[in-house]
Amino acid sequence: MIEIPSAPKHLGKEAAKEWKRITPLLEELGLISGLDRAALALYCQAVGRLTELEDAFNGQVKRLMTDRKLDYPTAVAEASQSTTPSGYVQQSVMVQLIKNHREQVNRYLQHFGLSPSARGRVQPSNFVQPTLPGIEPPKQAPGGFAQFAPGLIGASLQ
After folding, report:
1. pLDDT at 18 exceeding the cut of 90
2. Cβ contact 28:50 at 8 Å
């Protein structure tokens, strides 16, 4: 059944924004149900954290441009690396975290059919229970309140 699950309370600010942005789109495409809450929360948290990391990195670049009067490419290069106590230059922790979160987000996009390549593999819900080829579903009388629907009272199961 297609439904938007309630957003978990632990979502961060950016993750909650992503939840509000993506859930109506998933519902419109028939790609969401109440069972997807945990997976969707993981996706939204990864997007939220990636946004926060990108913002922090951009802030660091702006500070380098302002404080050290560096041009943009030089500031990006400077922010992208750090020097260990022994003098070894390596990729900065911030850049490593951004890379890891980008990979996480990409994996979640694949699961929800939200990338161009994944869209072809994802089937929206059509509310119909699939049947096996060659096996006819049994004819059953309606259950629950459906048995009292107009036209069904006393109807035969032909």
Report:
1. yes
2. no
Of 36, 59, 49, nearest to 111 by C-alpha is 36
- Tell me the sheet residues that pair with 91: 81
Nearest-angstrom CA–CA distance, 46 and 103: 9
Other Cβ atoms within 10 Å of 76 Cβ, number:
17
Q: How far is CA 59 from CA 52, 63, 76, 84, 90, in A?
A: 10, 6, 11, 22, 20
Residue ranges with strand state E in the chain: 81-83, 89-91
The Cβ-side half-sphere exposure at 54, using a 13 Å CA radius, reads: 11
pLDDT tens-place string over residues 44-95: 999 999 999 999 999 999 999 999 999 999 999 999 999 999 999 999 999 9
Taking a C-beta distance cutoff of 8 angstroms, is the pair 113, 119 a contact?
A: yes
Cα(57)–Cα(36) distance, integer angstroms: 31
Q: Look over the chain and give the mean of its residue pLDDT values, rounded to a whole number.
A: 83
